[in-house]
Fold:
Amino acid sequence: MDNHVHLILGAGRSGELSRFMMRVNLSYFSLYRDKYGYCGHFFQNRFGSNIVDSDTYLLHCGKYIELNPVRAKMVEAPEYYQYSSYPFYALGTGNPLVSPDPVYLALSATPEKRQALYALFVVDQSKVSSQKLREHRYIGSDTFIKSAEALWGFPNKRHPVGRPPKTGLARE
Structure:
């Protein structure tokens, strides 16, 4: 995307993802600053993350990412977006930056069949919405969401960023 990126990453321990993203952001900012002489704030917001329940929901999140440039009308089809993993998964194009996901590998024993199944899955109309990814902490079944809320002590619905709107303060 031209103003943000989407990544599917796994973290082994609490806090690892935050530290990784901090290193990525600082490294990129340093390179950009050195190349273009930029100073000041670089990123508008912190990164956002979701905890995903199962392989099925993880595939749906990947599908959302693959179709994001199409929805944004940047390209006609996911294979035309140069920063996408879609050509790797659906067309078998090599990419040293992509590690094959075990869920993807489990789709079929043969690469050709796997690629065809993935391509069909991505063009299917069911999807995880961007609103759901923005507003919810946990992506998964109702049972998973309830257990995650109990385990981590945070409700699934995120609070809006910023000060709440003023209400009921009208003076006569």
Remarks:
- The chain has two domains: 17-48, 50-152.
